[in-house]
Amino acid sequence: MKWKLEGVQKLWDRYKFAALVALIGAVLLLWPSGTARTDGTSRAETAESGNIQAELEEILGTIQGVGQVRVMLTVDSDGERQLAQDTELTYSGATEAPEDYSRRSETVLVDAGSNDEVVVTRQVYPTYRGALVVCQGGDQAAVKLAVTEAVAALTGLTADRITVAKWQS
Predict the structure, then answer these.
(1) Structure pTM?
(2) What are the Cα distances from residue 103, in Å, to 2, 7, 38, 83, 162?
(3) What backbone torsions phi and psi does residue 11 show, to the nearest 5 degrees?
(4) Could you tell me the pLDDT band of residue 150, with boundaries at 50, 70 and 90?
(5) Residue 116: helix, strand or coil by DSSP?
(6) How far apart are CA 5 and CA 134, in angstroms?
(7) Residues 10, 13, 18, CA angle at the centre, nearest 5°?
(8) How does DSSP classify residue 37?
(9) What is the pLDDT of residue 32?
(10) Which of 33, 79, 119, 169 could form a disulfide with 84 if both were Cys (CB 3.0 to 4.6 A apart)?
């Protein structure tokens, strides 16, 4: 019995660092990635999409011959904002063989006068699937071309994914 314990002790002494590395790797694989979006972020992206449509309506309305205008954009994929995080990692136990890990993260805020603003580290803009523009001058070829080119320039859509129609009288 004693020789079995000595054998186990020798194996442990020989491979304890490899076991520690494997344990740390397993913990890191199971650790949450922190890329999940919160409800606040989703609402901000939805509001941003609505703002883009409103801005398009405003700018397209200034093109000669367009008149009243309404815009509808369909989204292929929503945009994404990655926020800066201040992360603190603590562990208990010996340095060679920690017993427990804990991780605490907070979103980084910057003082912007009367309120705090989040720090965005990465911004991915939405990918649009198509656009429908309904305007008073939608039956004129020159207006259709100008509107199509403007929407294509602002959204990245190709002309075959943009439809310009005449406003119903």
Answers:
(1) 0.52
(2) 41, 36, 19, 17, 48
(3) -60, -45
(4) very high
(5) strand
(6) 82
(7) 125
(8) P
(9) 65
(10) 119
